[in-house]
Design brief:
Protein name: DUF4374 domain-containing protein
Oligomer: single chain
CATH architecture: 7 Propeller
Structural class: mainly beta
Organism: Formosa sediminum
CATH class: Mainly Beta
Strand content: 35-45%
Largest sheet: 6 strands, mixed
Signal peptide: 1-22
Keywords: Signal
Number of strands: 31
Distance between the termini: 28 Å
C-alpha cells in the first residue's frame, strides 16, 4: 500500500499562478511530513523543482514550483509527491534559475525576466511547501539585466556570479567589416548578506585571424572557481558572421572550445584559452557546466561535431589536451550532447544527455542518463531508469550530491515519474518517491 503524506492546501489569488503548488498527497489529511527527520539518521532536505507548461508542452514557462522532503522519503517508492497541486511558487516570470546550499537547507533564486527579473532572494528550507524568505532582497538587473545567467560558486555558499555579453560589428573607414566587438560584464554577489561584491566589464577578443573570419563570443555562462580560488573560468559560445555581408553565418567550421579566464576576486585581466581536443561551446544552458575535482576543472562542451567531450583545465589555467574523454566513444553513440551533469567527490558523475538516435518527443529529443568516471574516461548508460520518447532533459537544472550518491528526477513531459538515486561507487540505482505530473509539465531536477 502506498504511504502518502499531505500538507494543507493553499489557495492563490494570483491568476497566473493559481493551482501551482507542491506537496505530497494523502488519503489521511492528518498525516504531514515531519519537518524534523529522525535525528538518529543522517538526512538532508531534497527539494524537487517542477516547471509548469506555458503555451507549449515542456516549455516550462508557466511557473516553477519547489517542494522538499527528507532524503529518506526521497528514496522511498511508497511516498507520492504531487508538485502541481500544493507547494511553494518560486518568484520568476519564466522558469526560475535555482541554486541550493551544499547542505540543502537554503535555496537561492534570481528571478528570470518580467517585472521582477534580476531580483535575488534566499529561502530557508523547512520541509514540504514551507520556504521562508531570509535576508534582504537585492536586484542585480542594473548590472546584468532582467534575465541574468548566474551560478553559485563552490566557495561554501558565499558567492554567486552572473554574466552577460553584448556584441557590435566594427567597420573600417571604407565601410568594410573588420571584427565583432564582444563586451562581457560580470557581477559577483554576496549570497549571505545580499550585497554586490564587484562588477567589471571587459572586451573579450579572439585571435586576429578568427575575428577577421567573422567569429565572436556570443554567449557566456557558468562561472567556475579553480582549486586555488584565484581564477574564474567562464564558458563561452562562438557565433560567426559572413565578413562580406555581416549576415549571420550558420554553416561554418566549429572552432576549438574556448573559456574566458579572469583573476579572482578582482575580476580583472581577462584572457581566452582554447582546446584542441574539444570543439563547440562551453557555456552550457540551465545547469552548472564545469566542476573542480582533484585540482583541475572538468568542463562539458556542447554542439561538438564529434560528440560532447568532458574537457580538463589544469592548475596552470590552460586546457590539458592530453586528456581525451569523448562521450560518443564512451557510450557507443553518435552526436552525444551533454545537457547537464554533476560529479561526486570520487570523480564519478551522472550525465544527462541526448544523441542522434534519440527519439523526437513532444518537447524535443529524448534524454538519457549515464554514469561516468572522470579518472578512467568511461561512461555507461543507466539502464535501470525507464526512458520514454517524451523524457525531455534540455531544461534540466539540478542534481543532489550526498556523499557518493547522486539524486535525480525522471518523468516524461506530462506523465508521472520518480526520483532515482545513483550510488556512484557501486552503480546501484534506487527507485525513490513517485512524482505526480500534470499535462504538458515536467521536472527540472532536485536541489
Amino acid at each position: 500500500m502506498k504511504r502518502n503524506f499531505l500538507n494543507y492546501k493553499v489557495l492563490s489569488a494570483i491568476a497566473l499562478t493559481m493551482g501551482l503548488f507542491a506537496s505530497c498527497s494523502s488519503d489521511d489529511s492528518n498525516n504531514t511530513i515531519d519537518p524534523d527527520p529522525d535525528p538518529t539518521t543522517e538526512s538532508r532536505w531534497i527539494t524537487v523543482a517542477a516547471a509548469r507548461m506555458g503555451e507549449d508542452p515542456g516549455d516550462g514557462n508557466g511557473g516553477t514550483l519547489i517542494y522538499s522532503v527528507s532524503s529518506e522519503d526521497a528514496k522511498d517508492p511508497t511516498v507520492s509527491i504531487e508538485p502541481f497541486d500544493y507547494g511553494f511558487i518560486v518568484p520568476s516570470n519564466r522558469t526560475a534559475r535555482l541554486q541550493s546550499s551544499e547542505d540543502g537547507n537554503t535555496m537561492f533564486n534570481i528571478s528570470y525576466a518580467g517585472d521582477t527579473g534580476g531580483n535575488y532572494t534566499k529561502y530557508t528550507v523547512e520541509g514540504g511547501q514551507t520556504f521562508t524568505q531570509t535576508g534582504s532582497e537585492i536586484s542585480i538587473a542594473p548590472y546584468v539585466g532582467t534575465a541574468p545567467r548566474w551560478i553559485k560558486l563552490f566557495d561554501g555558499d558565499q558567492t554567486g556570479a552572473a554574466v552577460y555579453v553584448s556584441t557590435e560589428n566594427e567597420f573600417d573607414e571604407n565601410g568594410d567589416y573588420t571584427r565583432t566587438e564582444a563586451t562581457m560584464g560580470i557581477v559577483t554577489l554576496d549570497l549571505q548578506n545580499s550585497l554586490i561584491n564587484d562588477f567589471q566589464e571587459h572586451s573579450v577578443p579572439l585571435t586576429e585571424e578568427e575575428e577577421a573570419a567573422g567569429y565572436y563570443i556570443s554567449r557566456i555562462d557558468m562561472p567556475t572557481l579553480n582549486e586555488a580560488g584565484d581564477k574564474l573560468y567562464i564558458g563561452a559560445r562562438l557565433s560567426k558572421v559572413d565578413p562580406a555581408t555581416t549576415e549571420s553565418d550558420s554553416d561554418y567550421e566549429i572552432l576549438g572550445s574556448k573559456t574566458i579566464v579572469l583573476d579572482y576576486p578582482s575580476l580583472l585581466n581577462p584572457s581566452v584559452i582554447s582546446s584542441s581536443v574539444g570543439h563547440g561551446n562551453t557555456n552550457g544552458y540551465r545547469s552548472i557546466n564545469a566542476f573542480e575535482y582533484n585540482g583541475s576543472v572538468y568542463q562539458a562542451n556542447q554542439s561538438d561535431p564529434e560528440g560532447s567531450h568532458i574537457l580538463k583545465i589544469d592548475a596552470d589555467n590552460e586546457y590539458d589536451d592530453s586528456y581525451v574523454f569523448n562521450l560518443d566513444d564512451a557510450l557507443g553513440v553518435e552526436g552525444a550532447y551533454i545537457l547537464a551533469w554533476r560529479p561526486a567527490s570520487n570523480g564519478k558523475a551522472v550525465i544527462a544527455y541526448r544523441h542522434d538516435g534519440s527519439a523526437e518527443g513532444v518537447a524535443g529529443a529524448q534524454g538519457f542518463f549515464a554514469l561516468a568516471d572522470l579518472n578512467t574516461k568511461t561512461a555507461t548508460k543507466i539502464d535501470e531508469i525507464p526512458y520514454d520518447p517524451d523524457f525531455y532533459l534540455f531544461q534540466y537544472q539540478g542534481f543532489v550530491v550526498d556523499g557518493t550518491e547522486i539524486y535525480l528526477t525522471q518523468a516524461p513531459v506530462g506523465e508521472n515519474g520518480n526520483i532515482y538515486v545513483v550510488d556512484t561507487e557501486t552503480g546501484e540505482v534506487t527507485k525513490g518517491a513517485e512524482l505526480v505530473n500534470v499535462e504538458g509539465s515536467h521536472f527540472i531536477g532536485v536541489f
